[in-house]
Amino acid sequence: MPLPLLPNVVDLTKEALLAQTSLTALVSTRIYDRVPGTPTFPLLVVTSVDEAESPEPAIGEARVQVDVWGKLLSELGAQTQARLITRTLQSVVRDLRGTWTAGHIVNSAHLNTIPQPDPDSGRTRFIVDLQINSQS
Q1: Is the per-residue pLDDT at 110 higher than 60?
Q2: Which contacts of 13-17 are long-range, i.e. CB under 8 A and separated by 24 or more positions?
Q3: Domains of the chain by range and CATH?
Protein backbone atom coordinates (compact mmCIF):
# COMPACT_ATOMS: atom_id res chain seq x y z
CA MET A 1 0.00 0.00 0.00
CA PRO A 2 1.50 3.40 -0.96
CA LEU A 3 2.20 5.93 1.75
CA PRO A 4 0.06 9.09 1.79
CA LEU A 5 1.51 12.22 0.23
CA LEU A 6 3.22 14.57 2.63
CA PRO A 7 1.52 17.94 3.09
CA ASN A 8 2.64 21.12 1.34
CA VAL A 9 4.93 22.42 4.09
CA VAL A 10 4.61 26.06 3.00
CA ASP A 11 0.80 25.98 3.18
CA LEU A 12 0.96 24.07 6.46
CA THR A 13 3.42 26.52 8.04
CA LYS A 14 1.46 29.56 6.84
CA GLU A 15 -1.76 28.14 8.29
CA ALA A 16 -0.11 27.40 11.64
CA LEU A 17 1.50 30.87 11.79
CA LEU A 18 -1.82 32.56 11.01
CA ALA A 19 -3.29 30.86 14.09
CA GLN A 20 -0.72 32.52 16.38
CA THR A 21 -2.49 35.59 17.74
CA SER A 22 0.66 37.16 19.20
CA LEU A 23 2.14 37.10 15.70
CA THR A 24 -0.96 38.23 13.79
CA ALA A 25 -1.26 41.13 16.24
CA LEU A 26 1.94 42.41 14.61
CA VAL A 27 1.53 41.43 10.93
CA SER A 28 -2.24 40.82 10.66
CA THR A 29 -2.88 38.17 7.99
CA ARG A 30 0.08 39.29 5.87
CA ILE A 31 1.79 35.88 5.79
CA TYR A 32 2.51 34.88 2.19
CA ASP A 33 4.53 32.50 0.02
CA ARG A 34 5.98 35.49 -1.87
CA VAL A 35 5.92 39.27 -1.56
CA PRO A 36 2.66 40.43 -3.17
CA GLY A 37 2.63 42.91 -6.07
CA THR A 38 1.46 45.82 -3.92
CA PRO A 39 2.58 44.84 -0.42
CA THR A 40 1.69 46.38 2.90
CA PHE A 41 4.49 46.08 5.43
CA PRO A 42 5.32 44.50 7.80
CA LEU A 43 4.78 41.01 6.38
CA LEU A 44 6.15 37.47 6.46
CA VAL A 45 7.16 35.33 3.49
CA VAL A 46 7.32 31.56 3.99
CA THR A 47 9.38 29.38 1.62
CA SER A 48 10.63 25.82 1.67
CA VAL A 49 14.42 25.57 1.56
CA ASP A 50 14.81 21.79 1.79
CA GLU A 51 12.36 18.90 2.10
CA ALA A 52 12.89 15.18 2.61
CA GLU A 53 11.14 12.17 4.03
CA SER A 54 12.54 11.17 7.40
CA PRO A 55 13.85 7.67 8.09
CA GLU A 56 10.43 7.04 9.62
CA PRO A 57 7.99 6.65 6.69
CA ALA A 58 5.27 9.26 6.19
CA ILE A 59 7.08 11.92 8.25
CA GLY A 60 8.41 14.89 6.31
CA GLU A 61 11.43 16.89 7.41
CA ALA A 62 11.61 20.39 6.01
CA ARG A 63 13.74 23.44 6.53
CA VAL A 64 11.42 26.39 6.13
CA GLN A 65 12.60 29.98 5.75
CA VAL A 66 10.46 32.83 7.04
CA ASP A 67 11.51 36.28 5.86
CA VAL A 68 10.36 38.99 8.26
CA TRP A 69 9.95 42.14 6.17
CA GLY A 70 9.68 45.42 8.06
CA LYS A 71 9.65 49.10 7.43
CA LEU A 72 12.15 51.10 5.39
CA LEU A 73 15.48 51.34 7.20
CA SER A 74 15.13 55.14 7.15
CA GLU A 75 11.80 55.02 9.06
CA LEU A 76 11.77 55.60 12.78
CA GLY A 77 11.62 52.34 14.74
CA ALA A 78 12.20 50.10 11.71
CA GLN A 79 14.76 47.84 13.40
CA THR A 80 12.79 47.71 16.66
CA GLN A 81 9.60 46.64 14.89
CA ALA A 82 11.30 43.98 12.77
CA ARG A 83 13.14 42.60 15.82
CA LEU A 84 9.89 42.40 17.80
CA ILE A 85 8.18 40.47 14.99
CA THR A 86 11.22 38.19 14.69
CA ARG A 87 11.36 37.49 18.45
CA THR A 88 7.61 36.83 18.48
CA LEU A 89 7.99 34.40 15.57
CA GLN A 90 10.78 32.60 17.42
CA SER A 91 8.63 32.37 20.56
CA VAL A 92 5.62 30.75 18.82
CA VAL A 93 7.51 28.11 16.83
CA ARG A 94 6.83 25.31 19.32
CA ASP A 95 3.12 26.25 19.28
CA LEU A 96 2.92 25.25 15.60
CA ARG A 97 2.65 21.58 16.57
CA GLY A 98 -0.78 20.11 15.99
CA THR A 99 -3.34 19.26 13.36
CA TRP A 100 -4.20 21.87 10.75
CA THR A 101 -6.33 21.77 7.60
CA ALA A 102 -3.18 21.40 5.47
CA GLY A 103 -1.73 18.54 7.56
CA HIS A 104 -0.14 17.72 10.89
CA ILE A 105 2.98 19.31 12.38
CA VAL A 106 4.69 16.66 14.48
CA ASN A 107 7.54 18.89 15.62
CA SER A 108 8.74 22.42 14.97
CA ALA A 109 11.88 24.22 16.06
CA HIS A 110 13.73 27.46 15.49
CA LEU A 111 17.13 26.83 13.88
CA ASN A 112 18.70 30.27 13.43
CA THR A 113 18.06 33.90 12.59
CA ILE A 114 20.07 36.13 10.30
CA PRO A 115 19.63 39.92 10.07
CA GLN A 116 19.54 40.60 6.34
CA PRO A 117 18.51 44.18 5.43
CA ASP A 118 17.49 44.32 1.77
CA PRO A 119 19.70 46.79 -0.12
CA ASP A 120 17.39 46.87 -3.15
CA SER A 121 14.25 47.93 -1.28
CA GLY A 122 15.96 49.59 1.68
CA ARG A 123 13.80 47.55 4.08
CA THR A 124 14.60 45.78 7.28
CA ARG A 125 14.55 42.01 6.96
CA PHE A 126 15.36 39.07 9.18
CA ILE A 127 15.65 35.54 7.83
CA VAL A 128 14.38 32.94 10.29
CA ASP A 129 15.04 29.25 9.61
CA LEU A 130 12.64 26.68 11.05
CA GLN A 131 12.65 22.88 11.13
CA ILE A 132 9.15 21.52 10.44
CA ASN A 133 8.39 17.82 10.73
CA SER A 134 5.01 17.01 9.21
CA GLN A 135 2.69 14.22 8.20
CA SER A 136 -0.61 13.96 6.36
Answers
A1: yes
A2: 13/46, 13/64, 13/66, 13/96, 13/105, 13/130, 13/132, 14/46, 15/100, 15/101, 15/102, 16/96, 16/98, 16/100, 16/105, 16/108, 17/44, 17/46, 17/66, 17/89, 17/92, 17/96
A3: 9-35+42-135 (3.30.70)
